[in-house]
Structure formats: structure tokens, C-alpha cells
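Exam revision sheet. Question 4 asks you to relate a sequence to its structure. Input first:
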Amino acid sequence: MSTPAETDAALQSLAVCSDKFGQVFFSPRMRNKFAPIHVACGVEKIRLIAVPSNPSAKITINNADAANGKESEEITLNYGRNIFNVTVTAPDGKTKAIYTPYVFRDYPVPQWKKISDNNKWLPRDSAGELVFDGKMWLIGGYTPATAKDVWCSQDGINWICTGEITKSKKGIDIPLAFVFDNKMCVVDLDGVIFSSSDGTDWMLINEDPPWKGRWQAGGVVFKGKMWVMGGRTKDRYLNDVWSSSNGIDWKLEINSAEWSPRLFHNTPLVLDDKMWIIGGAVMGDYYPFRTYTDVWCSSNGRKWEKVTDSAPWVGRIWGSTAVYKKRLWLLGGFRSEPIWENLGDV
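Answer key, C-alpha cells:
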């Protein structure tokens, strides 16, 4: 049955355009819906063009009057989803139809530039990495001897060795590292906590924390406390969570969190007033290669929420994590199965 002309509030077509591209038509779906249109990150503004089935119908776009078949006023796009309200009022002045198309503007992606390829420090892995006092810091690592040296740079090109953590007996390798209370804190292979405000003078803070005797744990600063979670001892994997406001007195927040026991080869993160853990592994060697692709978050360290059980990236170890432009980032890593591969994805 056809709709009487005076009550026809249908759209004949809907398109988007900008100074960077010509008209692109939305693909109609059922129930006044349209398939989304994706635009590049560099498209900051667009205009909509709505054509009603009845030329006498009136159109508003985001509550502003729009001429039939003409470009609307410019609309500024946010990154991500941008939903628009297109209302068609039939000639009877009463019958209305509301359409909610959306345009997805791509998020910005960092462009990588090599700034240095021959630095003073020895090549290494498993070092502590911090940003403190306007500088990047590189602490210890495996060279393939276990190192204790400390380096810093303001630009990633010019590096200065500020000294060594001489009081550490075994050195620094896959350490817990924090910036806390205007100091850098790092945990050596013996589980001893050291701190420094300048990278030169390192003070022993705690020689025997209650979670001592674990490796490849996760550590983060959250709500005025240092947090330590997971890792492994000589005979088992862990999923406990500890916190401290001074590095000396530690509280067991939970002995067995909702996420399964695991190693952390990347740093837990803080975003939106929550702690986040991204994947992890359970493996003594490279075979069998057992990793996780789940993501969890918590606002208190005791109750954890599973955000996803299977993120789209492949399971890995030795990846890096960061918070940048209000997003969680996972960079690179390694996997030994199904192929032996160093990963360079972001």
C-alpha cells in the first residue's frame, strides 16, 4: 500500500560530502536505518544532503533547518562514531520520521620515525623503562649479562649514564618499575625494592616485601599506591594482588583474582580510573606456547571485570603497553607458535 503524499515522511536519499571528497550515499537498511560511512582521520568536517520522497516535506538535521537536496551547514566530526539526527516532516505537518545515520571518523595513528640507531648503552632486553622528571629512563636489563646501569635522555638521541644500582646483588632483569612519590622505584632479581630521585643515588626501600620470590609480575601506580600482581614463583603461577602506599607496608588485596594465574610480559595500565591488564602467558619455555588474549579491568584491585575473552591481536610475550590519547596500546612482542615470529604490530 502506497503512502498518501500528505503523510509521506520518507527519505529518497541521504549523502555526505566534505571539502576532501564528493558525495557519498548512505546505504539504506530496514527501519529507517543506514549503514555507517567511514572517513579518514583527516576529515574534520562534513555536510549532509537529504532528499525527501515528497519534495514538499521539510527536513531538519541536528535540529537545524536544511534545504531539500542541498548541502547542510558544516558539521564538525569527533574521532569515532558521530550520530546525526535527520527528521523529515511530511506535508501534513504532523507525520514525522527520524533517521539516525552515523559517520565513523578514524582515530589518529602515530607515524613512527627512527630518531637514533646507535646509542651509548649496550643492546639489551628486559630492562626497566620509565618516564620521570622530563626524561626517558632505561634501567638494567639483559645484555646478555644482567645489568645494573641506569641511563636517561630528554630526546631519545642523547643519553647519559647516571650510574649503577650498586647495592643490587643480582641486577635488574624484567623488573617491576614505578614512578611513585616523586621518585623512581625498581625491583631487582632478588625482589629488593630500590628508589631514587635522580637516577644516581639509589636507596634500599624494602629488602623483604611479602610478595618476594616471584618473577615476571605486573606492577602499576594507581590511586596513590604501588600495585604488584601475578607472576610466578619456582613452582607455581600467581594471580594475587598487593598494594602499598610507601613500598614498605604491603596489603594483600586479594589472594586469587578472577583472572587466571599468569606471567606479565607487559605493564598493567591505568585508564578511566581503572587498572587494566592485557593478556599474559603461562609458559616455562617457548614450547608449548601458552598465552592469553583476554583483557580485564578493576577500580579497586579486588573485583575484576572481564572486558573481553578474546581480543583480536595474537597471543604474545615481550610486548609493550602504553596509554596514549585516552586509549590502551599494545605494541609488538614475540610468539613461538604457530611460527617463530617477532611481532611489529600496533
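Marking note for examiners. The chain is about 0% helix and 45% strand.
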